[in-house]
Amino acid sequence: MLASSQIRSRWFRNRSAADPIVGGIWYAIIVGIRSDDLAISVRRATIADAPALAELVNRAYAVESFFVDGHRTNVDEVARLTERATFLVLEQRAVASLAAAVCIEPSGYFGMLSVSPDCQGRGLGTRLVSIAEAMGEAMGVDAMTLQIVNLREELGRWYRSLGYREVGTAPYEHRPVKRPCHFVKMRKSLHSIAVAA
User: Fold this and answer.
1) What are the CA-CA distances from residue 135 to residues 18, 23, 85, 106, 196 (Å)?
2) Dihedral angle at the C-alpha atoms of 15, 21, 25, 28, nearest 10 degrees?
3) pLDDT tens digit string along 49-92?
4) Is residue 11 part of a domain?
5) Structural domain count, the chain
6) What is the value of pTM for the model shown?
């Protein structure tokens, strides 16, 4: 029987980069989600998804209101991202809304990882990171990168548990702040994934 990482690599090598469906049976097997209210696969978002995506991201990032003012994003920003990067979304079928999403850039950088508050605690974030890493591997990038705000200490712990390590800092200039803060840059080599497989 193939290891999950071998299935993941083989599956992505056989998929077109332009294919709007990025999951299907692969997602159900590798990610292990079995739920009547969630779609069995992730799909590539289109510009038509921008309003729902912006709403999802802002709901998920509302926890940051203790140190910043305003929304995390808006429809225009999300629409631009859907044209230059890949937004993957998982739909919540029962209420015709989005359960989770992540934005992956060709460089291997990913951000706006968002899980609807009513779907949190089900492992969707971890599973979307795994899919982002598989896409990065398929695109031939050496590493996945991201940045988090230093005040979100729980995110630092979570990403470290997934194999990410701090590699630097950057100023936080995205929104008006209530407390001093900065970005923490994190990185995970994809070579270690390939070696482990």
Assistant:
1) 12, 11, 12, 9, 17
2) 120
3) 999 999 999 999 999 999 999 999 999 999 999 999 999 999 98
4) yes
5) 1
6) 0.79
